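Lecture notes, part 5. Sequence design as translation. It can be helpful to think of inverse folding as translation between two languages: the language of shapes and the language of residues. The source text, in structure tokens, appears below.
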């Protein structure tokens, strides 16, 4: 190869717009897949179906006929770690009236599949009949958990709040 050809090859533009376009296309595709897999939060409960049976109940006795909160996450994710004491407290405060389950998808990668979760943490609220009521993605406080239950007809007197 001649010196002129080598210099021309080095100075040729590399089309940075092509790479940027490919990255944008990949991101848009990933978002579209996540959105397509996520059930609508406002869909009727009978469309979203009943709760899968798979869950870790942390030694709770079977509590058929009570509402259930399933937190799908991992013990190594920061928001999941922040939620762990909240879930433990809810489990203790409302034993027998609310079932609280945690599913660690890093330790058990297939365990989240029946729930259709693609982002952690995801909390899934199930009614006493086993039907999904609503989902929440990300950290959620104890107060917001109890408010979510109340919006769906389950009033839990909070023993942790003043005056109770």
């Amino acid at each position: 190869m001649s010196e002129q050809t080598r210099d021309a090859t080095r100075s040729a533009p590399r089309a940075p717009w092509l790479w940027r376009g490919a990255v944008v296309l990949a991101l848009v595709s990933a978002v579209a897949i996540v959105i397509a897999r996520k059930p609508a939060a406002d869909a009727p409960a009978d469309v979203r179906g009943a709760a899968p049976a798979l869950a870790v109940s942390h030694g709770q006795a079977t509590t058929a006929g009570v509402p259930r909160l399933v937190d799908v996450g991992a013990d190594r994710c920061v928001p999941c770690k922040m939620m762990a004491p909240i879930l433990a407290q809810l489990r203790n405060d409302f034993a027998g009236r609310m079932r609280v389950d945690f599913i660690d998808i890093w330790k058990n990668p297939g365990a989240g599949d029946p729930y259709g979760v693609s982002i952690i943490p995801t909390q899934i609220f199930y009614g006493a009949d086993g039907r999904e009521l609503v989902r929440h993605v990300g950290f959620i406080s104890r107060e917001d958990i109890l408010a979510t239950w109340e919006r769906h007809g389950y009033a839990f007197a909070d023993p942790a709040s003043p005056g109770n």
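The translated text above is only one of many valid answers, since several sequences can fold into similar shapes. The CA atoms of residues 6 and 12 lie 10 Å apart.
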